[in-house]
Fold these 2 entries.
Entry 1:
Amino acid sequence: MLSQKTKYALRAVLYLSIESDPKIGLKGGKDVSEALKMPTAYTGKILQDLARVNVITSLKGPGGGFYVSEENTKEPLLNIVEAMGDLPFFSLCGLGLSQCSDDQPCPIHNIFKGCRDELLKWFQNKTIADLGDDLIKRELYLVV
């Protein structure tokens, strides 16, 4: 399972992808946390971490904040997972066993590994723009 931090990061990036516009105004961490009902300080830290690795863009100073640039929209969702430190999820045992492998499989190894590998491919191939476009078309929602 992806961590709560990664889930918050995914939600925040998708929110920024449809709600932020550097020409109109940027979103601060408090704006994002209120809109998505996430803890304010935690959201701010997540946004700073994402900006540090160029998944989102930030501007400092009065009127500053966070937004998703055209370049950011090309980022695969896996970069968000990686920035939050959850890449190991895609290689861990579904039952949390340390010795689980193809040679020594746990009872759910084969099915879990297949699902996990498909999810990894999805995160590698889907971009911020892909999901942002789906949100705008109202095919997907960020309902809390």
Entry 2:
Amino acid sequence: MKVAYLGPPGTNGEEAAIRAAPDAERLPCTSHAEVAKAVDSGRADIGVVAIENLLTGSVAETLDILIHETSLRIQAELLVPIVHNLVVRPGTKLEDICVVYSHTQALGQCRKFLETRLPHAAVEASLSTAGAVDVAMKHGGDAAAIATARAAALFGGEVLVPGIGDSANNVTRFVVLSAGRRPPSGHDVTAIAFWFANDSPGSLAGVLDEFAIRGINCRKIESRPTRETFGEYVFLVDFEAHEDDPLGAAVLAAIRPLCSSVKVFGSYPSGV
């Protein structure tokens, strides 16, 4: 088996890939979109992508991929504890740092540290946290990266300040993508997207009422732009039932006539 993930080695995505398939060959990718393409093309059997963080919320790139770019389905979810560290070239001091590199998610999750301890340092986004370490090591003694301790070791850096995240309880939810449907486990979540051809008062409420009257809990509700017309949105709901369970099948059948389109991202065992 081969698992695609957001690389290079040393990222939190690699940690999620190891947890998803400990014995699989790992295929590092430069973006979540490439992860999905690797599975779609057959270069990988499964892909692991970040979808939500405790501090910064949903990963927009992943949601847009699921909505617009792939027919792969979510097979599982993984909760991975996140520890962000300030990584530098050996010998670099805090006062030497003029620029900090990391993935945008990591930068957002370490905002308080950056504002209070490195207020004059420039912040530069990288494709991954591990890639940020590589860039920082090549940049010189005035650069730092926010990354894992494993990334520091892989690229010859050292952890100058450990645990710089805004929360000591930071967690990222990853999902495992592949083709096919997963059978019910008895404790499942189904993720869907739906949208309306003609938005009108009560459209969204009418869909949500179908969950309420069946006693189905919606654990997450949000929206993303349709990418077609400004002010029009795709709505996303994670609800507690499997699409093949009687309740799950019934609610999907009830909401389809109310929407112009409903896309099921998958049903999978809840890890929350």
